Amino acid sequence: MQNNPLFQLGLDNANRQTSQLAASRGRLSAGDTLTQLNNNALLTASPLIAQQKQSIGDLLNLGQGTAFNQGNILQNTAGSRANITQNTGLNLANILQGTSANQGNLLTGAAASEAAGLVGAANARSAGAANVLNLGAQIGGFAFSDPALKTNINLIGNENGFNIYSWDWNKEANELGLFGSNSGVMANEVLKKEPKAISTDRGYMKVNYGMIGVSH
């Protein structure tokens, strides 16, 4: 993604908008502004990741379809020549034995190539999926969202089935490097619906916003 000009352009635009909005509110160095700048990378990369997955799937399907079609053509050709051999005389049958042997070698090679292509396609699919997941994990990450770190909590909306709150970070949060105000979900509520999106750090719960489809 770092070498993708579309990603860099989109990320620059998103960061510029975030910085301009934060500057107008006097919150340029606030915790919520820094959090949004980090989330801009995930939001910008998501559609590009989806396009890469679709392209990989299309290429794999095309390769598999071609391999199967070639195998069917060779099988049909072999069957037709076998029928001709049965209907001709003994001398013609002897001549076709050599041809049949050569065709057998070709069919064996074609079958081996087809098998190798399918194995390669499966490996490519697994590697592509792993790379996409690793990239998403690196960009998304976990963010502190434990209620024990918050004060002045207010419900402000709902996103993707999760309640969205605004809050101020308390003294315990300040000790973790969290200052000012922020918004997002409550980790205890996410734990009930998506426990896999929760981790613990220094005794406080964190939320993987990318796993629950919520921006913050």
Structural features:
single chain, 216 residues, alpha+beta, 3-stranded antiparallel β-sheet, 6 helices, 15% strand, elongated
Description:
The protein has 216 residues and is of the alpha+beta class. It folds into two domains: 1-139; 143-212, no CATH class. 66% of the residues lie in helices and 15% in strands. The chain has a three-stranded antiparallel beta sheet with strand order 1-6-5. Strands 2-3-4 form a three-stranded antiparallel beta sheet. Strand 2 (150-159) and strand 3 (162-169) form a beta hairpin. Helix 2 packs antiparallel against helix 3. It is elongated, with a radius of gyration of 30 Å. The relative contact order is 0.11. Residues 88-93, 104-113, 115-124 and 126-139 have low confidence and may be disordered.
Counting structural domains, the number is 2
Radius of gyration: 30 Å
Average pLDDT works out at 73
State the secondary-structure class: alpha+beta
Percent range for helical residues? 55-70%
Instruction: Name the strands of the widest sheet in spatial order.
Output: 1-6-5
Give a concise summary:
The chain has helices at residues 5-24, 31-87, 90-140, 171-174, 187-193, 209-212, and strands spanning 143-144, 150-159, 162-169, 181-184, 198-201, 204-207. With 216 residues, it is α+β, with helices and mostly antiparallel strands. It folds into two domains: 1-139; 143-212, no CATH class.
Please specify the SSE layout and strand pairing.
Elements: H1 5-24, H2 31-87, H3 90-140, E1 143-144, E2 150-159, E3 162-169, H4 171-174, E4 181-184, H5 187-193, E5 198-201, E6 204-207, H6 209-212
Antiparallel strand pairs: 1-6, 2-3, 3-4, 5-6
Helix pairs in contact: 1-2, 2-3
